[in-house]
Amino acid sequence: MMEDTAGRTMVRAAMKAPYLERDEEHVLALRWKENNDQQALHQIAMAHMRLVISMASKFRHYGLPLGDLVQEGHVGLLEAAARFEPEREVRFSTYATWWIRASMQDYILRNWSIVRGGTSSAQKALFFNLRRLRARLANGTEPISNTSLYREVSVALGVSEADVAMMDSRLSAPDSSLNQPLADDSGATERMDFLISDDPLPDEVVGDTIDVERRSVWLKTALGALNARELRIIEERRLSDEGATLEALGEALGISKERVRQIEARAMEKLKIALVKQNPEFLATAA
User: Fold this and answer.
1) 69 and 56 Cβ atoms separated by less than 8 Å
2) Residue 26 is assigned to a structural domain of this protein
3) Residue at 149 is within a domain
4) Domain span at residue 42?
5) pLDDT surpassing 70 at residue 216
6) What is the CATH number of the domain that holds 273?
7) Are 241 and 265 contained in the same domain?
8) 32 located within any domain
9) 93 and 145 share a domain?
């Protein structure tokens, strides 16, 4: 009730505010810009509240209070006043319209659903134009399928058909709680029960990451116990994604593949000794 009263008071005050002629508007804009004249700003804002209220009424079908839309539009109006350049000889209402609409649309996108949507310009265009385009296309003599609708809208707005389908789905149904039972009885299965993920838990992911980083440090330290030829063989045989063959390494090093195998076995033994010596817990971790 208080909100309705405040809204009616605001509308009456806006309707009583005098219109501004071009010259008068220009003088007030200069006073505000050059002298930070708050009274001039107030006169400009009040003279254009009719515009704010008119635009707010066009967004009422989104189910949000008219008073809130007017307040958001007033914020956009003040933003326009702060950025207006009177020397460009453009009427303030023409310039302010974009800021008022943008402020209201942002408010609607933030409050229409608990799920944030319309973060890109394409998504915003879809949100505010899909219903209008659907109604226009449905006025034909024959019913239009969703496939044809999505194709027509995607061409008209320059977005993908998948984005159109997703937005259409969002606009066609209200938000639903994940804890809402799928049946009437209190012990029924909830929607959340069907969203179980097979991915590891966050603490498991963190634990695995820490283990991998720790073992990488251990291995880097242990590799320092190898000579140059042993290190090359281990890197190309064990630490490479492709894994070089004994024959290929033998040819590269000028030795037989059996000799490569012996050096590799010795290097692996040296690595194990180095790991256990520097990190006794390695045995328990590796087990």
Assistant:
1) yes
2) yes
3) yes
4) 2-111
5) yes
6) 1.10.10.10
7) yes
8) yes
9) no
The label of the residue with tokens 């290097």 reads 267
Here the CATH number for the domain that contains residue 65 is 1.20.120.1810
Q: Are residues 162 and 234 in the same domain?
A: no
Answer yes or no: pTM beyond 0.70: no
Look at the chain and report how many structural domains it folds into.
3
179 in a structural domain: no
Per residue in 82-93, pLDDT (tens digit) is 888 888 888 999
Least confident of 64-73, 146-155, 182-191, 242-251: 182-191
Asked if 9 and 95 sit in the same domain, the reply is yes
- 185 CB burial (10 A radius; 0-12, 13-18, 19+): exposed
Distance CA 82, CA 270 (A): 73
Cα angle 176, 180, 182 (rounded to 5 degrees) comes to 105
Q: Are 191 and 173 in contact (CB under 8 A)?
A: no
